[in-house]
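Tokens in:
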């Protein structure tokens, strides 16, 4: 299994670096640009980042996540890690603990012998011993498979491709004698655009490689614990609905490569579950899988994620249950009762309509540069605001707020980032959306059926950060009543409209602010249209 992963990784890296070398050779041959210095400098910076990133991350986690690196693990877990490390000729990792009820675990470092494994209190509280070992084994798998090194090396490619793109496109304004030649400038621009296309493509290749390595980390966990059910239960409890990892970019390389059981984004991250009193409801799991198996958005969003869809991971684990003398974990044999293509097309049009109208506006603005610009502005202004109102009516349906629970929300298929379901949830806030981060304003709510991410938003970003630092913690471990909108990307979440805690109602004002802003824009557009007629 490990040999297959090495082969896949080397072939992928070889292809990426082959493309990078070809672009650089073309750049030198045709554009004759001194880009070697910049590339060399970029590589030096990446190498320095790679070596200092783990220590820098240690500092960040201690200061801003209140991570304890002297935490004493339960004896069963300490012994399991020790045995696994000895088996794979690996040093015992540095253990970090985040005192937050939101469940998460991740690892980072340079090599398997200086790996850090960080877990949250939620992992120990929500999982049983076998499930905890399965999660930690997944993280050890990342270290044993040298994922930190492979992903860092892979991410160099889009960084340098983007650098080539910026340099070559910049030559159009270069004042040197060589760059004044029109053929040179045109060739440079063509190669620059090619570099940008390959930069985008390489990011998706890296995301694919990351998802592949997640499957192999799961496989490592199965082989270490001999317990597929434990890993599957853990994934359901803490990872059913992973966040979209950031695509690798020019500023996203060699940051320490934290690799987790769930890939939480820096600002928002959570996992949700479908369980009852510590046990897992297979019926709820099948219902929760419907969205990932049937909704077209799920397939598209997985392409932009560092982690596979949880339903795919559960089915992959289920395929190996017989190998470990266990009953197949889950069987998804439900048949779609309808096609969801029409819903997808409608939502895609609603999401893209404002951008389409803006593009058409600029086209018409250029065409009518000598004509009635006020009329063009007024007409397209009205159309633009109308499209925003239509979006709001889908993303923030302000009616029909019914009391429900997490399991029921997860079973919904006709929901997306565009289409919302108004809801009321009752439960307890167990931690932050990004576990332990003092700057994170979001929450994780737990009810009797599962846990889900709560998105706290305010019109001004600074208000969110002030709330995160000074007010968020006072809501922990308290029973709350949440009124808001359930939506779903790869991450299922509820955007908070109001939150009742200790008999007091706290409100988020983003929705109303956006509506008021739209009314003002509409008034200005109508005024421009009226003025165009000289009224």
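Residues out:
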């Amino acid at each position: 299994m490990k040999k297959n992963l090495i082969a896949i990784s080397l072939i992928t890296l070889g292809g990426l670096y082959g493309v990078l070398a070809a672009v650089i050779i073309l750049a030198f041959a045709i554009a004759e640009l001194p880009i070697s210095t910049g590339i060399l400098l970029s590589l030096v910076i990446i190498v320095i980042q790679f070596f200092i990133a783990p220590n820098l991350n240690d500092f960040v986690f201690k200061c801003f996540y209140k991570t304890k690196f002297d935490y004493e693990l339960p004896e069963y877990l300490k012994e399991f890690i020790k045995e696994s490390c000895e088996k794979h000729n690996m040093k015992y990792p540095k253990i970090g603990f985040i005192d937050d009820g939101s469940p998460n675990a991740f690892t980072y470092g340079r090599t398997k012998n200086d790996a850090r494994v960080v877990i949250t209190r939620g992992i120990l509280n929500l999982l049983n011993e076998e499930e905890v070992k399965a999660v930690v084994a997944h993280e050890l798998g990342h270290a044993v498979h040298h994922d930190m090194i492979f992903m860092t090396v892979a991410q160099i490619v889009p960084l340098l491709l983007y650098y080539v793109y910026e340099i070559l496109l910049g030559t159009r304004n270069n004042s040197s004698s060589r760059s004044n030649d029109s053929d040179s400038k045109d060739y440079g621009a063509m190669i620059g655009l090619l570099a940008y296309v390959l930069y985008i493509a390489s990011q998706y290749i890296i995301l694919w490689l990351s998802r592949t390595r997640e499957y192999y980390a799961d496989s490592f966990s199965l082989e270490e614990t001999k317990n597929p059910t434990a890993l599957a239960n853990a994934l359901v409890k803490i990872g059913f609905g992973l966040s979209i990892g950031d695509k690798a970019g020019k500023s996203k390389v060699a940051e320490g490569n934290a690799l987790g059981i769930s890939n939480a984004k820096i600002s928002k991250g959570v996992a949700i579950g479908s369980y009852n009193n510590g046990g897992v409801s297979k019926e709820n799991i099948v219902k929760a899988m419907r969205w990932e198996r049937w909704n077209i958005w799920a397939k598209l969003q997985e392409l932009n994620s560092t982690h596979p869809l949880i339903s795919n991971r559960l089915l992959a684990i289920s395929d190996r249950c017989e190998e470990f003398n266990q009953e197949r974990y889950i069987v998804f044999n439900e048949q779609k009762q309808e096609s969801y293509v029409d819903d997808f097309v409608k939502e895609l049009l609603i999401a893209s309509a404002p951008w389409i109208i803006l593009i058409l506006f600029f086209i018409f603005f250029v065409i009518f540069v000598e004509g009635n610009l006020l009329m063009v502005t007024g007409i397209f202004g009205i159309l633009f605001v109308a499209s925003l109102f239509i979006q709001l009516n889908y993303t923030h349906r302000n009616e029909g707020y019914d009391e429900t629970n997490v399991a029921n929300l997860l079973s919904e298929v006709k929901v997306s980032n565009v289409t919302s379901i108004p809801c009321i949830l009752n439960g307890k806030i167990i931690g932050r959306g990004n576990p332990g981060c003092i700057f994170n304003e979001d929450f994780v709510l737990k009810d009797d059926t599962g846990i889900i991410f709560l998105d706290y938003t305010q019109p001004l970003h600074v208000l969110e950060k002030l709330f995160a630092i000074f007010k968020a913690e006072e809501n922990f471990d308290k029973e709350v009543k949440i009124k808001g909108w359930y939506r779903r990307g790869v991450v299922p979440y509820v955007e908070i409209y109001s939150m009742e805690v200790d008999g007091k109602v706290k409100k988020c004002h983003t929705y109303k602010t956006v509506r008021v802003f739209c009314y003002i824009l509409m008034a200005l557009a109508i005024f421009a249209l009226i003025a165009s007629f000289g009224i």
